[in-house]
Phage tail protein
Amino acid sequence: MAFNIPNGSKVYISNKLDEAANITAATNDKEVVLTVDNLNDIKAGDIVQVDSGWSKMKGAFRVKLASGTSVTLEGMDTTDKDNFPPGGAIGTIKKVVAFTMIEQVLTVSIEGGDQQSTTVQFLEDDQAQNVDTFKNAVVMTFNFAYDPTLPAHNLLIGMDESKELVTVYFFNKKAGHDRYFNATVSYQEIPKTAINEVENIDVKFSLRSKQMVYVRGSTKK
C-alpha cells in the first residue's frame, strides 16, 4: 500500500527527435524485442516514440536493451496474441533526443477517460445488461504562470500549429515515478488576466497513447 503527493514534480515535453528507424518485426514477450533496420544510436535508458501496427504498442517507452538490430522496450508486454498478432508490429521508432521543462506549473487537471456503455435486453430476459463499449479520449491540462521568455512558450506555439506528436514526461519526485505518454498539443498563448492574480495560461495535451510508468529502482510498470 502506498500513496503519492505531487509536490516537487516536474513536467517536460520532447523538443527534438532523431530520425525514424523502421520496425521490421517484434516478439510476443513479457518485454517486447523489436527488430529495426537501423539502431540510430538508440541505447539502454533512452526514451523512444513508437508507432506500430499493434495499436496497443503505440506510445513512449524506455529502452531496456539495445544491440545490433534489436531493441527491448521496458515494461511492454506483448504476450497476448489477440492484441498483438504475429507479424503485425510493422512501424517506426524514434529516439527522443532532448526535453524542455514546462516551468511555473500552478495546477494539473485531467478530463475524459470515462467508460461508455450501451444497454441491451433480450425478449427472454427480465433485466437489461450493461455492456462496456469505449472510453472517452483523455486530455491533460497544465495551467502555469505566463512568461513568454521561457523556452517552452515558443516551443508550444509551434507544436500547437503543427499538431506533431510529442512525448510528455512527468517526473513525480516524491513517488520516484518517471511517467511518459504521447500527445498532441493545444496551446492558448493569450494569458488569463485578473486583478491581484498571477497571469496564467493553459496547455492541453490530447493523449495518443497509454501512460507508461517506470518506478525508479524497480522494474515494475
About this structure: Residues 12 and 195 are 30 Å apart (CA to CA). The helical segments are 151-162. Residues 151-162 form the longest helix (12 residues).
